[in-house]
Input
Amino acid sequence: MKKDWLKVGNSIVYVVKNRQIIALIGINDLVRENAKEVISYLNKNNIQTIMLTGDHEETAKKIANDIGITKIMANVLPSQKADMVKKLKQENNYVMMCGDGINDSPALASSDIGVSFNSGTDIAMDASDVILVRNDLHSIIDLIYISKKTIRNIKQNLFWAFFYNSLMIPISMGLLSYWGILINPMIASLAMVLSSFTVILNALRLKKTI
Output
């Protein structure tokens, strides 16, 4: 009976009386809505997914197979979750840890980006870098999408800032006067204002992303 329960994803609780097992209780974890869809998106975008769980290996395999996770670590302690995160980072991987339980907090704190939900435990939220307000796994996809857009926007802003500086400062100093390229320093300072204006407008485009 125990093996059958494990195969269908149950965690086993033993009821003991006078040092004798008098009952077994099977507890089944509910998979979050859209979990399979989100894991499929991550796999298609070459983002490796790993399940770290303290549950029995049979239970972990059942859930992992249902939602499409190919790599699991079962029967792990909270410290072992953190050790796994540290190992992945040492292999030059960027690690995002998602969890909402007390046992997840060491791994959340050790990861590059710790993600928790507002329905999680207080210690998990304190250890996280990002707290998702909506208890919807699609928020993880939104987080990745917004992060990529933000990094791209930052690079664009840096380009425009350095472009104006590298162009206007040498001209206003007269370094290009030999070739007849001159500009009034006041106009150069105005160009600096325009560079800041350009950066602000570019950053405001992110409002359409959120």
Observations:
- The radius of gyration is 26 Å.
